[in-house]
Write a structure and sequence with these properties.
195 residues; alpha/beta; five-stranded mixed beta sheet; 13% strand
Length: 195
C-alpha cells in the first residue's frame, strides 16, 4: 500500500472492512449450521488475534518502508548539499546553504576532500553567504575541512560571511589569522588570479 501512495490511516480504515466482512461470514455460518455461543467464541479467540497481528505487521511494514524512503531522500539531499562547482582549471567554489548539523558537517569533510582530489583543485572558495548561523561546531568543522584541504595542497578562501555570522565568530573568539577571507566571490577569484 505504501508503494501505491496510500496514507496509513486510509489503509488501516480498509482493514476494518475486512474485519466486518469476516464477522458477517461467521454470523452466516453460525446461523446456517446452528453453532453454539461457545463455538462462536472459540472462533473469535482464533480470528481476532490473527487480524490484530495482520494489522500490526501491515503497519510495521508500512512504517519501515516510509522510513526507508525518508532516509534515501535525506541521503540524496545531503549529497547535494555539498556541491563543489568548478570555475576554471584548478579552482572551484563550494556554496554552503542552510544549517549545519553533525551529520552534514561530517559529510562536508568527506565529500569536499574527495571532490577536491577528483577535480584536481589548487584553490577552493567556500562561500558562506547562505549560512545563517555559525556555532562552535560549524566553525570547528570548517577549520578541519580547511586543514584537510591544506594537507591535500588546496588553498581555501572563505567568502560571503554575513555580518551576524562575523559577530558570532568574533564572540566565539575564533582565530581567523590562518584563514584567507574575502568579502565576496569576485574578490576571492581576483585574489586567486593574482597568485
Amino acid at each position: 500500500m505504501f508503494q501505491l501512495g496510500a496514507p496509513l490511516d486510509e489503509a488501516l480504515k480498509d482493514t476494518s472492512y475486512y474485519r466486518d466482512f469476516i464477522w458477517k461470514a461467521i454470523k452466516e455460518e453460525a446461523t446456517t449450521h446452528g453453532l453454539s455461543a461457545a463455538s462462536i467464541f472459540d472462533v473469535i479467540e482464533i480470528i481476532d488475534p490473527l487480524l490484530d497481528h495482520a494489522v500490526y505487521y501491515f503497519s510495521l511494514n508500512y512504517i519501515q518502508s516510509y522510513q526507508k524512503v525518508l532516509e534515501q531522500a535525506k541521503s540524496a539531499f545531503l549529497e547535494l548539499s555539498v556541491p563543489i562547482v568548478p570555475l576554471i582549471k584548478g579552482t572551484g567554489v563550494l556554496p554552503l546553504i542552510g544549517n549545519m548539523d553533525t551529520e552534514r558537517a561530517q559529510l562536508l569533510m568527506d565529500e569536499t576532500t574527495k571532490q577536491a582530489v577528483k577535480l584536481k583543485l589548487e584553490h577552493l572558495i567556500i562561500d558562506l553567504s547562505g549560512v545563517m548561523i555559525v556555532d562552535t561546531m560549524v566553525a570547528d568543522q570548517l577549520f578541519k575541512v580547511i586543514d584537510a584541504l591544506s594537507l591535500l595542497g588546496v588553498t581555501t578562501i572563505l567568502t560571503g560571511i554575513r555580518p551576524e555570522v562575523a559577530q558570532t565568530m568574533v564572540v566565539l573568539g575564533l582565530d581567523l589569522d590562518r584563514i584567507k577571507v574575502q568579502g565576496n566571490l569576485h574578490q576571492a577569484f581576483m585574489e586567486i588570479k593574482a597568485m
